[in-house]
Amino acid sequence: MRENSDILKLVEEKEAETLWQSQRALILQPGAIGDCILTLPVVKFMKATLGLGGVDILGHTEYTGILPGRTAVDRMRSIEAIDLHRLFAEAKQFHLPDHDPLINFFAEYSWLVTFLGEPGSNFEKNLIFTVHCSHSAEVVTLSLKPPENFEGHLADFYIQELVKQSGLHIEATPSMTDEQLIKADKADATRGKELLKEAGVDLSKKVVVIHPGSGGVSKCWYIDNFFAVARELAAKNIEVVFLLGPAEQERFEEATMKRLSEAGKCLMHLSLAEVVELLSCGSYFLGNDSGITHLAAGLGTGTIALFGPSNPSIYKPVGPKVTVLRGEPTKFASRVCEELQQQVLEILKTVLRD
């Protein structure tokens, strides 16, 4: 009898494990890297409270490809691989034939959270219809930006809205804004050191990586401020590495690019995976309110995040070693600010002290 009881228990445990693994969620996140990183606290919250076997993210692979294996995201799926534009059609005119690829795509998920569309929009209605063609599932639409009167961090807004819209009888626990969201491995750090060596960086010295760009020009600290900080760091025998993405290479004039190469080593044309590798082994990071700053903070790299017009209370990068400094919003991108320069240098002087 005991043998039969043990077998029954094993069967029940296996069935429970299979059921758990089958409860999966998909997050539709069409944003850039900063948006994807600020979604990670939602992923962790869903896993902790909903008993999910996995959470996948549907987005642009150039941004989401770094997430599986380093974060709470289990799998990435390409937004280019599915005709999501069909879901923007008028709801009254939307129809699907049997075995439509859209139906099959969403069939494995018990939860769908989308940052595409708005609550009550044609997209939401058509997504709900598509999902329910195969099974019953919870569909929640979240806005990328909170209302003007919202006070708190953006990740908390997402979690609160998820709980509110789904009708869950659970507490919308605040996100941990000092949490490490992204974990690089030894291979990342090894490759990062190789990238620095290839750029001529002396790894026996402290290294500060500076990313002077952002998606919005108004969010970029006036470039002469970065030059002034770089000069002071170099004078203290600290290696300065400028990380330049496609936006900066297009935006900066030839004279600015020349000054950057004179003020420090320049690394360009890196994939996002290589940026992860680079940031995983730098001593410290300095950048504007940008996706790369969110990435550095999420990796646990010591980070100084410079804010101008955007609200750091809402958009502060999540990470265990983040310092936020804010300049005067109207002059942030157009004037030299020696006071803010000194604040940056004092922090770096303290944290990089032997």
Quick summary:
With 354 residues, the protein is an alpha/beta fold. 42% of the residues lie in helices and 15% in strands. It has 14 helices and 11 strands.
Written account of the structure:
The chain is of the alpha/beta class. It folds into 2 domains: 2-166, 3-Layer(aba) Sandwich (Rossmann fold); 186-351, Glycogen Phosphorylase B (Rossmann fold, 3-Layer(aba) Sandwich), CATH 3.40.50. Helices cover 42% and strands 15% of the residues. The protein has 14 helices and 11 strands. It has helices at residues 2-22, 33-50, 61-64, 101-106, 122-132, 154-166, 186-198, 223-235, 246-251, 254-263, 272-279, 291-298, 312-315, 338-351, and strands at 24-28, 54-59, 75-78, 111-114, 138-141, 207-211, 239-244, 265-268, 284-288, 303-307, 322-326. A 6-stranded parallel β-sheet has the order 8-7-6-9-10-11, with helices on both faces. Strands 3-2-1-4-5 form a 5-stranded parallel β-sheet, sandwiched between helices. β1 (24-28), α2 and β2 (54-59) form a beta-alpha-beta unit.
Q: What tags apply to this protein structure?
A:
five-stranded parallel β-sheet, six-stranded parallel β-sheet, Rossmann fold, 42% helix, 354 residues, alpha/beta, elongated
Secondary structure layout:
Blueprint: H1 2-22, E1 24-28, H2 33-50, E2 54-59, H3 61-64, E3 75-78, H4 101-106, E4 111-114, H5 122-132, E5 138-141, H6 154-166, H7 186-198, E6 207-211, H8 223-235, E7 239-244, H9 246-251, H10 254-263, E8 265-268, H11 272-279, E9 284-288, H12 291-298, E10 303-307, H13 312-315, E11 322-326, H14 338-351
Parallel strand pairs: 1-2, 1-4, 2-3, 4-5, 6-7, 6-9, 7-8, 9-10, 10-11
